[in-house]
Specification:
This protein is an alpha/beta fold and 344 residues long. It has helices spanning 15-20, 39-50, 60-86, 93-109, 126-135, 152-167, 185-202, 217-221, 226-241, 266-275, 293-309, 325-339, and strands at residues 24-30, 113-119, 140-145, 174-177, 207-213, 248-253, 280-284, 314-318. Helix content is 49%, strand content 14%. The chain binds the ligand C=CC1=C(C)c2cc3[nH]c(cc4nc(cc5[nH]c(cc1n2)c(C)c5CCC(=O)O)C(CCC(=O)O)=C4C)c(C)c3C=C and fe (ii) ion (2 copies).
Length: 344
């Protein structure tokens, strides 16, 4: 019996009091999302995001004038328009899907472990969430970034934020961190099962395209393992689904700026496939743990339109794993492996 199970009277049975005695915490971290689909909310959020040297590595003196003089004058309005297309009654899909996933993971891991969610950019911040967990008594912290593939621009930046949060603490918790889970068998199985059950409901398209968020090609050349991990996830899914390279393809989306990013680009691939006579194209985005702007707007709307305009019949977006039971089970198993030896 662990300490949280001790009955200490009705007054202390609130969620807060229960959390107060939990010594082990799992901190999920996702990218974050603006507070509202408006240019006013986008500006400070994009400023924080695009000032991160992990994301854009140009020297500050060179990047600062471009960011503040050009990007932050133009992009907030454009991005707000895109966000407005996917914002729903529950708010930003990235936020509410991430919250639902955290809640389901908490239920799966049980009361001995406290599950919290933080955002790398925007609120709730990594630092404030770690402070809160520590106030509640967490002495052991597992950080699980919601990025299956490691990139310095995503996971690496979460590590920076956790390091900065630790600097502010006099007695930081013991720390563990999941670098990636791109080849985790439970994760591959969750992806495969989700695609197969989508096919049971909707029928199979002519091709399956896996579209991952891109990064500048230069980052890969400098040693970022991201592209290689995306290729490995793709190969494992291809093997699991018994498809060949012509049936299951890989591409990279969400290019920003003028540099070359990882290729092949998703928009070019979608148009090429339509031109080659592919009628039904299924697209999944295994790099995103939950649905967000990049899947719901860029793939399910923008690229759907590109495909149709190039002569395709329908691009069908297969939803992210979100809080589905397979993802909850595979992430819980992953967390449990990393929690071994800690009180739970
Ligand atoms: C400009 C450089 C960017 C890099 C490098 C980058 C890498 C990267 N991003 C994700 C995941 C997400 N990105 C999202 C949105 C988004 N990404 C960039 C730029 C870069 N991303 C911008 C400017 C935006 C904001 C929207 C826009 O203005 O276009 C999101 C969605 C957030 C949401 O609120 O829904 C996710 C998720 C990964 C995994 C990654 C590197 C591998
Ligand atoms: Fe991004
Ligand atoms: Fe995008």
């Amino acid at each position: 019996m662990t300490s949280h199970d001790h009955y200490t009277g009705p007054a202390s049975r609130s969620a807060h009091a229960a959390a107060a005695s939990v010594q082990t915490a799992v901190l999920l971290v996702n990218l974050g999302t603006p507070a509202a689909p408006t240019a006013k909310a986008l500006r400070p959020w994009l400023a924080e995001f695009l000032s991160d040297p992990r994301v854009i590595d140009y020297p500050r003196w060179k990047w600062w004038p471009i960011l503040h003089g050009v990007i932050l004058r133009l992009r907030p309005r454009r991005s707000a328009h895109a966000y407005a297309r996917i914002w729903d009654a529950q708010g930003s899909p990235l936020r509410w899907h991430s919250e639902a996933l955290a809640k389901a993971l908490q239920a799966e891991l049980g009361p001995g472990v406290r599950v919290a969610l933080a955002m790398r950019y925007g609120e709730p911040s990594v630092a404030s969430t770690i402070e809160q967990l520590q106030r509640e008594g967490a002495r052991h912290l597992l950080v699980l970034p919601l990025y299956p593939q490691y990139s310095a621009t995503s996971t690496g930046s979460v590590i920076d934020a956790v390091g900065d949060a630790m600097k502010a603490l006099r007695w930081p918790p013991e720390l563990r961190l999941v670098n990636d889970y791109h080849a985790d068998p439970g994760h591959i199985e969750a992806l495969a099962t989700s695609i197969e059950s989508w096919w049971v409901q909707h029928g199979r398209g002519d091709r399956l395209l896996l579209s991952f968020h891109g990064i500048p090609e230069r980052y890969a050349q400098l040693g970022d393992p991201y592209a290689e991990q995306c290729r490995t996830t793709t190969r494992l899914l291809r093997e699991r689904l018994r498809l060949d390279e012509s049936q299951l393809l890989l591409s990279f989306q969400s290019r920003v700026g003028r540099e070359r990013w990882l290729e092949p680009y998703t928009d070019a691939t979608v148009r090429r496939l339509a031109g080659e006579g592919v009628r039904k194209l299924d697209v999944a985005c295994p790099g995103f743990a939950v649905d967000c702007l990049e899947t719901l707007e860029e793939i399910a709307m923008q690229n759907r339109d590109f495909f149709a305009a190039a002569g395709g019949e329908s691009l069908r977006y297969i939803p992210a794993l979100n809080d589905n039971a397979e993802q909850v089970r595979s992430l819980a198993a992953l967390a449990r492996r990393h929690l071994q030896g800690w009180p739970a």
